[in-house]
Amino acid sequence: MRFFKPFFRRCLFVLFALFLGLFVTASSYAQETTRLSNPVAVFSGLDKITGRITTFDVYIGETYQFGALQVTPRVCYTSSSDEATRTDGFVEVNEITLDKKIKRIFTGWMFADSPGLNAVEHPIYDVWLKDCKQKSKVPAPQ
Q: Which of 19, 81, 82, 117 has its CA 20 to 30 A from that of 3?
């Protein structure tokens, strides 16, 4: 029993040190990073039936229909050009069911540098954020 007490103390100390390191890293990242807001989010979508990957631009606040999914970006941020590239966006995804009801299947942040982290995984479709940009060839909404 005496062996376990020092062992658990060391484990708690290591966990505390890791938590403190993550906190310091996150707070320094938040202070140093300049986030630029963009009016256009760029997504890729995979149709698993056909194997086709489609890239599409969506203006912030607008909804794009990709198969049975409705993709609506709420914000899209990129880091400034003098920093390491970081792109993230807050996205809502709805599914139109066979009985014509709309069901929310995803609400959250997507990260372009980690597409598997928070991508929409659906039985037929996958959707992930690729980029954010200032202009698009798609006409702006009225």
A: 19
Q: Which residues on adjacent β-strands are paired with residue 117?
A: none
Question: In angstroms, rounded to a whole number, what is the distance separating the alpha carbons of residues 93 and 71?
Answer: 5
For residues 113 and 86, give the distance between their C-alpha atoms in angstroms, rounded to a whole number: 7
**Cα–Cα distance for residue pair 71/98, rounded to 1 Å:** 18
Q: How do the domains of the chain map onto residue ranges?
A: 1-32, 35-133
The 10s digit of each residue's pLDDT in 100-122 is: 999 999 999 999 988 777 778 89
- Judged by phi (left if over 0) then psi (alpha if -120 to 50, else beta), residue 130 lies in alpha
Structure tokens at 139: 């006409």
- Tell me how far CA of residue 117 lies from CA of 59, 102, 120, 129, in angstroms: 23, 24, 9, 11
Beta-bridge partner residues of 129: 43
